[in-house]
Every structure is written in C-alpha cells, then in structure tokens.
Fold:
Amino acid sequence: MKNHYVRKYYLSIALIAMMMMVTTIASAAEKIRIASVAWTGVTIKSELAVSLLKSLGYEAENKVYGVPFVYAALSSDSADVFFGNWMPSMATVANKFFSDGSVIKYVANMPGAKYTLAVPSYCADGGLKDFSDIVKYGEKLDWKIHGIEAGNDGNLIIRNMIENNLFGLGKFEIMPSSEVAMLAEVQSRVKQKRCIVFLGWSPHSMNERIDMTYLTGSTDATFGPNDGTATVWTNIRKGFDQEQPNVAQLVKNMTFSIDMMNQIMTAVYADKGLKPEKAGLAWLKDHPDVYRAWLKGVTTSDGKDSVAAFEDYLRGM
Structure:
C-alpha cells in the first residue's frame, strides 16, 4: 500500500513538472504582436523586429492599425509593441494611455526626427515659408491642406488649426489620404509648379525625391516647438517587459538613426518590387555593428546565441 502512495506521489510530481514544461514552452512560443501604422518608416522598423524575433525562435506578426486603434490594441492586450510613437504630435492621442499606465512609453528609438507642414521649395522661395503665410496663398492652395490617413495625429492637429482658426486657417479644408496617395498628389503638383501644403516628415525618402521645405511657425498647440522637431518612441503594453523580458530587451535595444532610415526608405522607393523587410535586412547585412548592438543581452527563445541565430537567418535570405 505504501508503494502505491509513493508511486502516486511521484506521478503527481512528474505531472506537475510536465505542466510547468508545457507552460514554459507555450510562453516562449507565444506570438509577439507588433502594432504599426501604414507609414514606410514604421513599417520598416516593425518588419525588422518581426524578422529578428523569428530568427530567435519566436512567433511574431506585424498588424497595421490607424493611430487611435494602435493605443486601443496596446491598452486592451491585443498588441504588445509599437515603434511609431511620434512625440509631441501624438501627445493628444497617446498621453491618456501613458497616464493611466495601460501603455508604457518605454524607450526613445529615434531622436532628431521631424513632423510638420511642408511645401515644395519653389513655394517657399515665393514667400510661403511660415504657418502664418498659408492663408495668404489660400486661392493658390484651393483652400486645402493635404494630410494622410483619417484619424492620424497630424490630421487631428491640422483639423484643430482649422476649427480654431489658428493662423487664419478657418476657411481651409483638410484632405485625408494615404501616405502614397498624398505624395503622388504632391509630385503631380510639383510637375505643374503649383503650390501645395502637405504633411512632411523625416526620415522619409520624400526628402530625397522632392525638393521640399518645412514651414516655420509651429507652436505647442500644433506640431510642437522647434519647427516640428520630434522624437520617436517605442511603446509597450503594461506588463509586457515582465512577461517577455528577453523580447523587451531586444525592443529596448532597437534604436534607429535618421541616416539608416533614409537609406532604407530610398532603397524601397528606388525599387518598387523591394519590400521594406528585405530592404531593411539588406541594410543590416551591410552594418553588422548595428544588429550586434541590438542583440546585446538577448538570447534565442531557448537561451542560445542570438547573433549566431540572426546571422544564420541573414545567410538564408
């Protein structure tokens, strides 16, 4: 009888150990959910993160949302990481989630960015240089300012400028569009030497493809001081860094220079068939110091050398 109880005891211990092992494996294999928006730069960062995670043995996906829905997803545990928090322009959307603790601001991944209104340089040469100049060119601009997707923080800032008649813009209308469609409209106007005011940002290949000038005059009530100078942050959902410390370390390490992003985006636009992920990986292949810094203190999902695993992944491209 005693042996019977001993066998039951050891069987119970074995079952508990197996359950713990299954739980550990499930945790390591849990899909990492990257939230992104349909902007080329954020897409590149997000797809690079997915590739790195897959090389380390994780399941990962990049899911595209509008900006407000990114924060709804992060705060409701439907997404884990977001590489595209442009501040201060996103403050009106993001700050309430930072304040209630459901989303963590986490780490600045790209200082020295820019996000504000821009014009073709021939418009600036003609006198349209500042936010206060826009109204003077209302007729030439068809009383329109061109933005990107509806619900985007930049669009919200422009809408607020119009609704509150800031800089005398009360007669203007915002034209929401996709990034690609907006830039196509800009390039069409440039060919005709017509004026247009549009949302511009750096890094982006638009700065290489269009002779453009950023307007001065931005304030705290618009795109922030210093003429729209921005810092891009990586955000995570509450608790993610405790649940996935290895992935959180990778995410924390992933910083991006303006030059890096401009080079990758220019490659994407130069070759219409080149996907952002492939362009980013090709750039990393030529800059091993960058990915080695990203992988410092990081292992594969089963505890092995992360650099060796990623370099194997790159060789298989």
Summary: The radius of gyration is 24 Å. Confidence is low (pLDDT under 50) at residues 1-29.
